[in-house]
Amino acid sequence: APAESVALDDEVRAVGILVPRDELRLSFKVGGVIERMAVDAGDQVQAGQVLAVLRSTEVDAAVAQAAEGVAKSRRDLERARRLLADEVATQEQVEDLTTAYNVARSGLDSARFNARFARIEAPADGIVFERMVEGGELVQPGQPVVVLGSTTSGWVVRVGLSDRDLVRMEAGAAA
After folding, report:
1. What pLDDT is attached to residue 62?
2. Contacts of 72 (CB under 8 A, 6+ apart)
3. What is the reported pLDDT for 106?
4. Using the 8-state DSSP alphabet, how is residue 124 labeled?
5. Distance CA 11, CA 102 (A)
6. Helix (H/G/I), strand (E/B), else coil: 53
7. What is the three-state SS of 133-174?
8. Which pLDDT does position 174 carry in this prediction?
9. pLDDT by 10-residue block (mean), the chain, 175 residues
10. Spatial CB neighbours of 4, under 8 Å, sequence gap ≥ 6
11. Could you tell me which of 131, 126, 130 has the C-alpha nearest to residue 149?
């Protein structure tokens, strides 16, 4: 058949779904075994609500180990300062122990920071789209555990369009 031009109807018909504008993939900063999943897909949650918790054994042990390291390095530094006053230790030894103490304190700060992120709290009001793990599972740092749709940032309609319809769309067109 010969090709010919025809006028197309400007209207595009499509089926879509209404979803929150922001979709958040939430994960733990540290890895570990899931102690408890507090939500299921479809649950509505409030900002600050606990969604998932890791078993705290490893995280608590890391904090305790770092705290003991700080205590030991503090004792070593104080001992070296007394020995320096008695001219038994050198200034270099005191400086090295001061550095070791500061490193130990930073390690403790890091362990405490990680301990705070051994639980996932909802960053905003929303709806749980997907629960990706179960209690007792081992998760890696950064592995998505829950997908949350934030209801505080507005809503959008997601529509699948054919290529033919897509090229006819313009930014800002009424829907």
Report:
1. 92
2. 104
3. 96
4. S
5. 67
6. strand
7. CCCCCEECCCCEEEEEEEEEEEEEEEECCCHHHHCCCCCCCC
8. 78
9. 77 85 92 94 95 92 95 94 87 93 96 92 94 94 94 87 84 79
10. none
11. 126
